[in-house]
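lol ok so funny story. i was supposed to be doing the assay writeup but got distracted and ended up predicting the structure for this chain instead. priorities right. anyway since i did it might as well share w the group, maybe its usefull for someone
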Amino acid sequence: MSNIQEEKTKQEALDDICRLTSNVKAGGCAAKMSASQLAEIVFGIPKLDCPQLLTGIDNFEDASVYKISDDLAIIQSVDFFPPVVDDPYLFGQIAAVNALSDIYAMGGKPIMALNIFSFPSCDLPLSAAKEILRGGAKAISDAGAVLAGGHSIQGKEVLYGLSVTGLVHPDKILTNNKALAGDQIILCKPIGTGVALLAHKGGLLSEQVQSILFQNLTYLNNQVLKLALKYNIHAATDVTGFGLVGHLHEMALASRLKTQVICKAVPLLPQVKDFADQGFIPAAAYANRLSYEKYVRGLTDDAIVDLLFDPQTAGGLMFSCDKVETGKLLSDLKNAKIEAAVIGEFVAGETSENGIVELVI
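and the output, tada:
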């Protein structure tokens, strides 16, 4: 065997050892429990009367907010999941970007993060663990926050994420329950990460499409929030595991409104509609559809509808914005080279229609 062949064999063996996704049933936010399961297990949990708790588990907000003073509140969030890619550094970045996004969705600034880490050190090299933490630390640093420690355990599969603390003025919290009738809905990242990651795992993405996907997954939402806060944003969330439809339903239900979504206006990652047409749909998308289809009008078997239920990892912020200011915000986002679009609006309806998502194909 030549030296070149020997080195190639060694690298292939190392690649096999470090294949983080080899034993993963569902990675990223596709690993979340379904909305219906989550609602069932949290139902009946005693709630303490705490006037300082400004947002808790009600309305499925992105994070909790606790008031410290008239000028200061802390935002607390936690998020972790199994790997979506085999590259440990990239996985660490993606998981951290996803966890940090909950703070931006509440209108705040992250200041401190703690690692949450499960790692099978008997099965995978410690060098992979170090790279995951290094990737996470890079995203935390890019967000202007500090990594302050964490907790690790031995586990059968890799799990990584963060507990993040942020700050916000109590009067400037963004929640998902204050959308107004007539507000337009702005989505600030293309969707389709669940479908694209499934295609990536199957080795079907070109280098160009793979590069776009990874840029999307590692893009922090801090700049988007900075631009949005210049305008009259009534409500916000980030689009993650429950898919676009799930998060729209939550916003509409909490705001006692319904929504109309123009499907062709929803920005998509490259090729994901073709992959969805070919049946590359993650299991969590079917779980989302099962949880939310009773709230959706206009369902079809079109691939674009499958993508509306697709679980998003490190997804974009979604705003309910005063129609008068939508154009200015979109212009600012475009100038910052951030892909965003108006995908529909919130509409008043009968009380029985609160939370309904109407699809316009």
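The CA atoms of residues 81 and 159 lie 5 Å apart. The longest strand covers residues 109-119.
back to the writeup now i swear
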